[in-house]
Amino acid sequence: MPHTPSFTLPAVRAEVSSLWKLAWPILIGQLATVGMGAADVAMTGHTNPEELAAVSLGAAIWSIVLVTVSGIMMSVNTLVAHEIGAARHDRVPHIVRQSLWKALLIGLVACVLTNIAALVFDHLMLEPAVAAKAKLFVHIISAALPAFTTYRALYGYSTSINQTKPVMVIALAALALNIFINYLLIYGHWGMPRLGGIGCAVATTCCVWMMLAAMVLWIRRAPAYRATFPFGQWEAPQWASIAPMLRLGLPIGVTYFAEVSAFGVISLLVARFGVVQVSAHQIALNFSSVVFMVPLTFGIALVTRVGHAVGEADLHRARFISWVGVAMSLAAAVASAIFITLFRHQIAAGYTSDPQVQALCAQLLLFAALFQLSDATQVATSSAIRGYKVTRQPMLIQLLAFWGFSLPIGYVLGLAPQGFAWSPPAPMGAAGFWIGLVTGLTVAAVLLTWYLNRLSLRRLHG
């Protein structure tokens, strides 16, 4: 009979230790991945404003696509975790092989759609040179998408069998390689062509293909993968296996798209208030995205831990793991909120020397500190729910939160349009949009917490 854990201090401490052991290499890998984007912006910023604008615009489309396909590929995490938990190791190779076919399909479709999306630059009233470079950036970097989706399939497989070290090592190596290639191609050192911002696209594409090759090599060589080795035989694509993966993964992709696109729309709406508001908004958003890597990492680990317990049919432990993981994410969010509140002026000064931008950024960072709590809660609860192989309900809740609350409230408060009884007398600008973000994230956190409690009790009591 499965052991029924209770919320005693030793049991909680043991689960915290297990979750942290699984999560910390993923955290370093996530930070290294975020660091690649930061390095692109920072290194291009030392060329000229046109190059930086082209990279920023191209990276905006790349980020939306990247986050969306990452969500679609997350189904392999849950499926492998369930089979490992149920001790059905013989089924894992088939799942991984079919997930690779799914990855190729998603990667090629995403590549085509990304190139089509680049046409938007022709309609944004940009300088012709900036629009042309932004389009070329997207065309080049889109070649990385089939490699990225394939890498995420193997990433999900590896983390779901508790092998997280490769994720960390490969991401750190990719970060170092990305900086080196940027150095060569952005500035034209060592006889290489001076490509400016386009060099970032070439560097990222090379690094993503390197990450895929490194992960394949690691899986082929490391003994930890032998019991579930997926490359032992050829297997044609089987729609009967791929379709359930898409049904599980597409709602996660839609969820991720809803969030990242909402943030993107808000950034575009803030742009009308001028460079000070835009700069302060982007700085606060950038710092928040870095801090968000901690609860996101706990969420990735929760999918594996809860999936193992559900696969073992130990539903008491699945519920226990879920709430311990949510508590860990919330504790990290409290620490982040305190840090941001105390050091908001120093954070702003670290990004810019403009006193107006610093002052507004410090104000927006107070909102960022506030939404740490709800953001951490919503990502942890939605991840735990996915551990139960449930993805549709989190998608609907987060669509409601971001597009039903965050954007409408932010629009009314930020722009103060006529005809709304509760709109402010004057536009609140970026602050109004951040109030909308806090509201939407709080709605998501409350509803997802309620649903996780309902789902885990229903599964527990049959």
Give an overview of the whole structure.
The mean pLDDT is 89. Helix 2 runs parallel beside helix 5 (128-141), helix 10 packs antiparallel against helix 12 (315-351) and helix 12 packs antiparallel against helix 13 (355-387). It is built from 15 helices and no strands. 79% of the residues lie in helices and 0% in strands. The chain has helices spanning 9-44, 49-72, 75-85, 92-117, 128-141, 145-160, 165-187, 198-221, 239-270, 275-291, 293-311, 315-351, 355-387, 392-415, 430-460. The chain has 2 domains: 24-237, no CATH class; 250-462, no CATH class. The chain has 462 residues and is an all-alpha fold. The protein starts with 8 loop residues before the first helix and ends with a helix.
Q: What is this structure, in a nutshell?
A:
The protein is an all-alpha fold and 462 residues long. The protein is built from 15 helices and no strands.
List the main descriptive attributes of the protein structure presented here.
mainly alpha, 2 domains, 79% helix, 462 residues
Structure summary, number of beta strands: 0
Oligomer class: single chain
Strand content: under 5%
Tally of DSSP helical segments: 15
Alpha-carbon distance between the two ends? 17 Å
Element string (H = helix, E = strand): HHHHHHHHHHHHHHH
- Outline, from the CA principal axes? globular
Q: Unreliable stretches, pLDDT < 50, 5 or more residues?
A: none
Q: Give the radius of gyration.
A: 22 Å
What share of the residues lie within helices?
Answer: over 70%
Mean pLDDT: 89
Tell me the number of structural domains. Answer: 2
Q: Which structural class best describes the helix and strand composition?
A: mainly alpha
Largest sheet: none
